[in-house]
Amino acid sequence: MKKQLFVLVSLLVAASMVLTSCGAPATTAAPVAPAAPAGGEIAVIVKTGNSSFWQNVQTGAMAAQAELKKQTPKLSVTFLGAQSESNITEEINIVQSAIDRGVKAIVLAPSDVTALQPAVKSAKDAGIPVIIIDSKLNGDASQYTAFLATDNKAAGEACAKAMIDLLTKAGKTEGKIQVMSYVAGVGSEIGRVGGFNDYIKANSKFTLLPTQYSNADMPTALNQTTNVLQANPDLIGIFGANEPTAIGMGQAIKQAGLGGKIVAIGFDGNSVLAGFIKDGTLQAIAVQSSFNMGYLGVKNAYDVAFAGKTVPAYVDTGFLMVTKDNIESQDAKNVLY
Fold first, then answer.
1. What are the pLDDT digits (tens) for 99-128?
2. CA 21, CA 25: separation in Å to the nearest integer?
3. Is the distance from CB of 144 to CB of 300 less than 8 angstroms?
4. Among the four given CATH numbers 3.40.50.720, 3.40.640.10, 3.40.50.2300, 3.40.50.10950, the one describing domain 40-150+290-318
5. Do 63 and 302 touch, CB atoms closer than 8 A?
6. Mean pLDDT of the chain
7. What's the alpha-carbon Rg for the chain, to the nearest Å?
């Protein structure tokens, strides 16, 4: 009897062990979420902070920061610019300061296509990727990671075509055209004004007067345009190649009572220039997406410096020709600032 009881107990114990080993769910390790990239600074450095165009670049950069902070809470995006676009030494010093404090990446709008080259090389030597926006540097493109900008040559050509079309509609095929530019030697200026001038020369009989340079200073542009209008009462067309220059140009045209009597085309799209379109002082403005320059500049810098990704070498941030016919469209509202 005892022997039978012992066998029965042994069988029950064995069965229990089998059931336990077969029926218990296997234990698995909980998945480990990937660690968020460590924090650090992306320095956005532009030609000047004293312009609504560059302030809209800042708006785009901060929008990118807000998105990226969700995955990298300790990310910092800073924004600095020189007092004026012509103060090249100040911008170089701002870049060097960013290098010295060990930023993770730099988004740079260079005020001079040659003078900023050594600073960009210093950044690369320090292992800091540089995203160039707005104006392409001369020389070795391998010194920076990517270039994001309007196709300034194409935009200049579009302004020239608009000028020719408007003058032709007014019955004019010959006469004087004045270009009001900003800083000689800046990459965007070379493409933009070069594209305008080359298209006028190749596709019309209009005469281009010597280019005026305002150093991107609105009062200077106003005074220069006033002088040009007084010295050339037979002027038929005028082109203002960046925001402060076009604003000064527009104000001079209004003060002279020539709104609608001279074909005037500007570049960039703040509220003042949009107002000039609405009241007929200017007939067209080529508007870049400055927001995209800041937004995509920071996003690409992050992808390289924090996520280790490869980004395109060139991104065209686009432009739109805005006239009285389309200024109330959604496309125009998306780029005006």
1. 999 999 999 999 998 999 999 999 999 999
2. 9
3. no
4. 3.40.50.2300
5. no
6. 91
7. 30
